[in-house]
Specification:
With 248 residues, the protein is an alpha/beta fold. It folds into 2 domains: 94 residues, Rossmann fold; 132 residues, Helicase, Ruva Protein, domain 3, CATH 1.10.8. Helix content is 43%, strand content 13%. The strands form 3 sheets. Strands 5, 6, 7, 8 and 9 form a 5-stranded mixed beta sheet that branches. Strands 1-4 form a two-stranded parallel ribbon. A two-stranded antiparallel sheet has the order 2-3. Strand 2 and strand 3 form a beta hairpin. Helix 2 packs antiparallel against helix 3, helix 5 runs parallel beside helix 7 and helix 6 crosses helix 7. The chain is elongated, with a radius of gyration of 26 Å.
C-alpha cells in the first residue's frame, strides 16, 4: 500500500495509520475489520527538500556550494530529512515506522548509467518503428558529456535528462529521417563540433540492413534497400537537422 507525499494528508489519516501500524487492522464504519498483517505500507515524502537543496547549492552569505558529492554530504542530507519528518509527525507516529530510507545524491557514475539507459531506450524506439526507418546511431563521449551537462544538476538530479535527449538528439534525428537524409540500415555517428553543437555524421549506408531484416523480418525489404546493405560511405559527410522553435 503506497501513500505518496504523506505530509500533505489530513491529520485524520495519520491517526488512522497509528492503529494500522500498531495492530495491523483497520476497522470500517460497519464494524468490520480488515487484516493488514500481510501488507507492506510505503509512505513517501518531500519533507526537508528545501533544506537539502541549500546543502547542495549553498545558502546565503558565506555558505559554500558542495564541490564534491561524498558520504559526508549524504549524512547531512539524511539528518536533514529525518529532522524534518520529526518536526512534522508526532513521536508516536515516527516510532511505529520500521525504516526510514533517504535517497542519496546521484554520483557522476550513476548519472552516466542513467544516460546509457536513456540512449538505449531511444535506440530501441528507432529499431521498433514501422516502415523503412530503422537505423543505428552512436554518441561519442563528448556528446554524452554535453547531454549530462544539459540534463542534470545537483538540485534536480537527472529529472531533465530525458528532455535534453529529446531536444538535442531525438528531434534532430527525426528531422533527418523525415527529410530522407537517414534511411534504413544507416549508421550515424553523433559528435560535437568546435562550436559546441551536435553534428550527425553518416559513417555507413545500409550497413545494418542484414541485421535488421533478420531481426524484424522482410518489412520494407525492397530490392533497392537490400542492395544498399554493407555499403560504406566513401566520403563521409556531416549533415544537420534544424531544431524546432522552442516553445516558451
Amino acid at each position: 500500500m503506497l501513500f505518496d507525499e504523506i505530509e500533505k494528508a489530513s491529520d485524520a489519516l495519520w491517526q488512522l495509520l497509528l492503529g494500522i501500524l500498531d495492530k495491523a487492522t483497520l476497522t470500517l464504519g460497519d464494524n468490520r475489520r480488515v487484516d493488514l498483517s500481510q501488507c507492506i505500507i510505503i509512505m513517501t515524502s518531500n519533507l526537508g527538500a528545501g533544506e537539502m537543496c541549500t546543502l547542495v547549492e549553498g545558502g546565503m552569505g558565506f555558505a559554500q556550494r558542495a564541490k564534491l558529492v561524498d558520504n559526508s554530504l549524504d549524512e547531512k542530507i539524511d539528518r536533514t530529512a529525518v529532522d524534518a519528518a520529526r518536526r512534522k509527525f508526532t513521536p508516536e507516529f515516527m516510532n511505529r515506522i520500521d525504516k526510514v530510507v533517504v535517497f542519496k545524491t546521484l554520483r557522476p557514475e550513476h548519472l552516466q548509467q542513467i544516460l546509457e539507459i536513456e540512449l538505449g531506450m531511444v535506440q530501441q524506439r528507432i529499431l521498433m518503428v514501422s516502415g523503412a526507418s530503422q537505423f543505428v546511431f552512436n554518441c561519442t563521449s563528448k556528446v554524452k558529456s554535453f547531454l549530462l551537462g544539459e540534463g542534470t544538476d545537483p538540485k534536480y538530479g537527472a529529472r531533465h535528462l530525458k528532455r535534453a535527449i529529446e531536444r538535442h538528439l531525438v528531434f534532430p534525428l527525426a528531422n533527418l529521417v523525415a527529410t530522407g537524409q537517414v534511411k534504413l540500415g544507416d549508421f550515424i555517428r553523433v559528435d560535437l563540433n568546435g562550436d559546441g553543437r551536435l553534428m550527425f555524421v553518416k559513417e555507413a549506408e545500409g550497413a545494418m540492413v542484414p541485421v535488421l531484416l533478420e531481426r524484424y523480418g522482410a518489412a520494407a525489404a525492397a530490392p533497392p534497400l537490400a542492395a544498399r546493405a554493407a555499403r560504406g560511405v566513401a566520403n563521409r559527410r556531416e549533415f544537420g537537422a534544424t531544431l524546432p522553435p522552442e516553445v516558451k
